[in-house]
Inverse folding.
C-alpha cells in the first residue's frame, strides 16, 4: 500500500509540474506524466495495473484543473480525450516493453533492447498520442495542424525517452550498488557539475556551445555507467526546456525563429522549443547507442574471458585433451595435458606423430572415423588403443567434427576432444568377464555356454562336421557336502573343473560349469569314437585327483559322463543334442556311476558304445 501511495503521489506531482511549471504560452512544453506512468507500470506486477490506471484517470484530471486554475478543465473534451489516450498509450507501451525483463530491470543495455524501447517510446506511442491530440484540438493561433502535431509528437517523444529510463535505472538498488563501489560521491559531483554546465550552455545565444553537450555525457557514461547517464539526461532536459521557454539559449540565435526584427511572437517560443526537443531527442539517441555498443563490447569481453577461464578449468581438472587436425589427420594443435597423460616430457608434443603410438589394429578405426567427419557427419565418436611413453596400452575415446570457424573456401580442420577411458574399459571388460565366467571355478558359465553352443552348432552345420557334447556330473556330491561341509565342497568343484579342463587339448574345445555339480564340454570336429575316448579320460582324470569321499561306493570323488555326437543338418540348435547327452548321463547313473555312456540322436542309448570303468575302492 505504501508503494502504491508513493507512486500515485509522484504521478500527481509530475502532472502538476507539467501543467504549471512547464506550461509555456498556453501549451505544455514537457509532458512528464505519461512517461512516469509508463515507468510505474513497468516496475509493477501486471495484476496491480488496474489499480494504478483506475486511480490515475480522475487524479490526473483534477490535478490538471488545479494546475491550470480552471474547474472547466474537469469536463473539457480535450482533457478527457488526452488523458484517456495517454493512459492507453502508457498501458500498451508497458505491455510491450515488460516482455524484456532484462532491459526493464537494468540487467541488459544491449542495442537490440534499446532499439525496441526506442521504437515504442519515440515512434509508436508519440505517433498515436499526437494523432489523437491533433484530431480533437484546434491548433493555437499561428499554427497549422501539421505544426501543432509535430510539437505534440516531439513533446511526448522527449518525455517518454528521457524520463522513463531514469526511473527504471535510478532505483534504490542501483544507488546502493553505486555507494558500495565507492563511486557515489564522484557520480553526484559529475552530475551536479553537468547541470551547471548545461545551464550555462542554454543561456548562450550561439549555436556552437551545443556541441559541447555530448563529451560530458560520455564522460559520465564511462565513469558512472548508465545510471549516471540517465540521471544527467533527466537533469539536462528540464533545464534546456525551461531556459528555452523563457526566451534564452542558442536556439534563439537562428534567424528564422524571429517573426520580425526586434520583435518576437508567441510562435517563436514554440518553434524554439520544437528545435530544442528535437536536439535533445537526437542527443539522447546518440548517447544511448554509444552506451549500448559499450555494453555489448563489455559483455563480449566478459564472455571471452569466461570462455578462457572455463577452458583452462576444464583443461586442468579433467583428462580431456582438445585437438585440431587437418583433413588428413595431421595434428595442428593438441592440449598440453596430452604430454602428462601419455607420460611425455614437456615439449615432446612439438614433433608428435600420433600414428606411431596407435595400436596397429585400431588405425583402420581412426581412418574410418576421419572419413565420416570429412563426409560431414557431426560428433563422430570412436574408441581406440594407444601406447604411452612406457609402452603401456591405454584406451581413448575421441569425439570429432568439422570446425565451423573456418573461413569460406579456406582450409578445413577437424576439431575434437580425446578422453582417457582406460579405467572405464577395463572395468567394463571385468564386468563382462564376471557376467560370463563362473566365479567359483573360473570356467565359463551357463551364459557363455549358450553363446558357444549356438556358435559351434552353426559352424558344424556350415562345414558338415561333427559336434560332440558331454554332460558331466559329480557322483554323490550332495552327500559329499553333508559329510565334509560346503567349503570342502567348493574346493572339490574347483579341482574337478580343473581336471576336466586339463583333458581338453585343442583351442576350440570348450568347458563350462552348467550349474551345481554339473559341467558341460563342447568338442567341435569330434566323432562318436572320439567322444567316448574323451569321456573316459575325464573320468580317469577326476579319479586321479584321489579326493576322499567316504559317502561314495568308490571311496573317492568320481564323475558320470553322458555324451552325444551329431552332424548338424540345420542352422539352429533345437536342444536335441543336450537332451541326448543328458539322457546318456541319466543312463550312466543308473548303470552305477563312475562311467561314460554315449548316445546319438536316433536312439536314446547305444549299448555297444557303453563303456563301464573299473570300480576303485579304498
Amino acid at each position: 500500500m505504501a508503494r502504491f501511495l508513493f507512486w500515485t503521489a509522484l504521478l500527481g506531482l509530475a502532472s502538476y509540474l507539467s501543467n504549471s511549471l512547464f506550461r509555456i504560452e498556453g501549451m505544455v512544453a514537457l509532458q512528464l506524466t505519461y512517461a512516469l506512468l509508463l515507468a510505474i507500470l513497468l516496475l509493477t506486477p501486471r495484476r496491480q495495473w488496474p489499480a494504478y490506471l483506475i486511480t490515475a484517470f480522475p487524479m490526473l484530471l483534477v490535478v490538471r484543473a488545479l494546475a491550470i486554475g480552471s474547474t472547466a478543465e474537469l469536463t473539457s473534451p480535450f482533457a478527457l480525450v488526452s488523458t484517456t489516450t495517454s493512459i492507453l498509450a502508457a498501458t500498451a507501451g508497458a505491455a510491450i516493453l515488460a516482455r524484456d525483463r532484462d532491459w526493464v530491470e537494468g540487467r541488459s543495455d544491449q542495442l537490440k533492447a534499446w532499439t525496441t524501447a526506442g521504437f515504442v517510446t519515440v515512434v509508436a506511442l508519440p505517433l498515436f498520442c499526437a494523432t489523437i491530440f491533433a484530431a480533437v484540438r484546434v491548433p493555437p493561433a499561428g499554427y497549422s495542424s501539421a505544426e501543432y502535431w509535430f510539437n505534440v509528437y516531439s513533446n511526448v517523444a522527449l518525455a517518454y525517452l528521457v524520463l522513463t529510463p531514469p526511473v527504471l535505472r535510478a532505483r534504490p538498488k542501483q544507488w546502493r550498488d553505486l555507494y558500495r563501489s565507492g563511486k557515489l560521491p564522484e557520480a553526484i559531483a559529475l552530475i551536479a557539475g553537468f547541470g551547471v554546465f548545461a545551464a550555462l550552455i542554454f543561456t548562450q545565444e550561439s549555436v556552437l556551445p551545443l556541441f559541447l553537450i555530448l563529451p560530458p555525457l560520455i564522460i559520465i557514461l564511462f565513469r558512472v555507467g548508465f545510471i549516471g547517464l540517465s540521471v544527467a539526461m533527466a537533469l539536462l532536459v528540464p533545464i534546456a526546456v525551461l531556459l528555452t521557454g523563457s526566451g534564452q539559449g542558442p536556439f534563439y540565435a537562428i534567424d528564422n525563429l524571429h517573426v520580425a526584427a526586434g520583435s518576437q511572437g508567441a510562435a517563436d517560443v514554440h518553434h524554439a522549443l520544437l528545435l530544442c526537443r528535437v536536439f535533445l531527442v537526437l542527443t539522447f539517441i546518440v548517447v544511448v547507442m554509444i552506451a549500448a555498443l559499450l555494453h555489448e563490447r563489455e559483455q563480449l569481453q566478459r564472455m571471452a574471458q569466461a570462455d578462457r577461464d572455463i577452458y583452462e578449468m576444464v583443461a586442468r581438472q579433467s583428462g580431456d585433451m582438445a585437438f585440431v587436425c587437418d583433413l588428413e589427420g595431421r595434428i595442428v594443435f593438441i592440449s598440453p595435458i596430452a604430454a602428462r597423460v601419455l607420460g611425455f616430457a614437456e615439449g615432446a608434443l612439438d614433433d608428435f606423430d600420433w600414428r606411431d603410438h596407435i595400436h596397429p589394429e585400431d588405425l583402420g578405426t581412426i581412418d574410418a572415423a576421419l572419413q565420416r567427419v570429412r563426409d560431414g557427419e557431426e560428433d563422430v565418436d570412436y574408441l581406440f588403443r594407444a601406447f604411452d611413453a612406457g609402452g603401456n596400452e591405454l584406451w581413448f575415446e575421441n569425439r570429432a567434427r568439422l570446425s565451423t570457424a573456418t573461413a569460406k573456401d579456406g582450409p578445413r580442420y577437424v576439431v575434437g576432444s580425446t578422453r582417457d577411458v582406460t579405467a572405464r574399459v577395463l572395468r567394463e571388460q571385468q564386468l563382462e568377464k564376471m557376467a560370463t565366467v563362473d566365479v567359483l571355478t573360473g570356467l565359463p558359465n551357463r551364459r557363455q555356454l549358450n553363446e558357444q553352443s549356438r556358435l559351434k552348432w552353426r559352424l558344424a552345420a556350415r562345414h558338415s562336421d561333427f559336434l560332440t557334447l558331454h554332460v558331466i556330473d559329480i557322483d554323490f556330491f550332495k552327500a559329499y557336502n553333508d559329510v565334509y561341509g560346503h567349503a570342502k565342497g567348493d574346493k572339490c568343484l574347483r579341482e574337478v573343473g580343473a581336471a576336466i579342463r586339463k583333458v581338453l587339448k585343442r583351442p576350440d574345445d570348450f568347458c563350462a560349469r552348467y550349474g551345481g555339480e554339473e559341467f558341460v564340454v563342447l568338442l567341435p570336429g569330434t566323432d562318436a569314437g572320439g567322444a567316448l575316448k574323451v569321456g573316459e579320460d575325464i573320468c580317469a582324470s577326476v579319479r586321479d585327483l584321489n579326493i576322499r569321499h567316504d559317502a561314495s561306493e568308490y571311496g573317492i570323488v568320481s564323475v558320470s559322463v553322458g555324451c552325444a555326437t551329431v552332424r548338424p543338418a540345420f542352422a539352429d540348435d533345437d536342444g536335441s543334442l543336450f537332451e541326448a547327452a543328458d539322457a546318456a548321463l541319466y543312463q550312466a547313473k543308473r548303470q552305477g556311476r563312475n562311467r561314460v555312456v554315449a548316445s546319438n540322436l536316433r536312439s536314446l542309448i547305444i549299448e555297444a558304445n557303453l563303456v563301464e570303468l573299473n570300480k576303485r575302492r579304498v
